[in-house]
Automatic annotation (TrEMBL):
Residues 157-222 form the Transglutaminase-like domain. The lineage of its organism: unclassified sequences, metagenomes, ecological metagenomes. This is Unannotated protein. It comes from freshwater metagenome. Gene3D superfamilies: 3.10.620.30. Pfam families: Bact_transglu_N, Transglut_core. InterPro entries: Bac_transglu_N, Papain-like_cys_pep_sf, Transglutaminase-like.
Length: 266
């Protein structure tokens, strides 16, 4: 499938700010099941020089600075991606195995998570066990915007019983790691032809590792494996590794963030 993504982020400040340093993870990955056909980044103010590098997790990162006073910054990332069903036989390194089995700030391993796993775990392969845990997450959580924030850890999500795709992903990651299954967070987009003319949002799901199949991509929000309708931006231990934008600035103004995402068939 050939998909086009336009992701516009606008930062507005209540007073002029200076020395703003911004980091972006908006460039789709070139990986198994996905080829990046094009990528363009535009900023307003214009003329910003964006430097690019690949982080330790293999994600494309752009960063830039604006030293002059400004009260608004708009970043628009436009991508075209050719997708197919995700399949990866790449074996993680021992360090990756370690990282993707450890608790993190948002994918916590505590008694609440372990109790959830005890009630949902089955015998079987990593793929079978992770799929059972994914279904348990879907049965336990209700999708509700505004019930959580980007800082909500997985035990709190379980206590609330509700959240958004990011929360579903963190709970599944915690559950898989508690059951000994390497798991990582995936950020990206999901194309839905029923919503093609509407503005969507970023999406999050989970990769789990099975020795026989390699990385398997599961979406606990929708209850299935990744298909050609998904666009992968970045992978990490949890959301903290892969926010689409983050940065710092000098100034007393308060920041307001607005995001507009459109995914369409090219």
């Amino acid at each position: 499938m050939w998909l086009r993504v336009e992701h516009t982020t606008t930062f507005t400040y209540s007073a002029p700010i200076v020395e703003a340093y911004t980091e972006l993870r908006l460039r789709p990955l070139d990986v198994d099941g996905q080829r990046r056909a094009s990528f363009r980044l535009q900023t307003e103010p214009a003329g910003v020089r964006v430097h690019e590098f690949v982080d330790h997790l293999g994600n494309g990162v752009g960063h830039f600075d604006i030293l002059e006073p400004h009260e608004q910054l708009t970043v628009t990332a436009t991508s075209e991606v050719i997708t197919s069903p995700f399949l990866s036989t790449a074996q993680p390194s021992p360090l990756e195995f370690y990282d993707y089995l450890q608790p993190t700030e948002y994918a916590v391993l505590d008694e609440h998570v372990r109790a959830f796993v005890a009630g949902a775990a089955i015998d079987g392969t990593n793929a079978e066990r992770a799929t059972a845990l994914m279904q348990a997450v879907r049965e336990t959580l209700v999708y509700e915007k505004g019930a959580t924030s980007v800082q909500t850890p997985s035990p709190e999500v379980l206590r609330l019983g509700r959240g958004v795709c990011q929360d579903f992903a963190h709970v599944l990651i915690s559950a898989c790691r508690a059951d000994g299954i390497p798991a990582r967070y995936v950020s990206g987009y999901l194309y839905d032809d029923a919503l093609a003319d509407e503005h969507g949002a970023s999406h999050a799901w989970v990769d789990v590792y099975d020795p026989d199949r390699g990385w398997i991509s599961l979406d606990p929000t929708h209850g299935g494996e990744q298909t050609e309708s998904y666009v992968r931006l970045a992978v990490g231990r949890d959301y903290a590794d892969v926010p689409p934008t983050r940065g710092v600035f000098k100034g007393t103004g308060e920041e307001t963030l607005s995001v507009r995402v459109n995914v369409s068939a090219a």
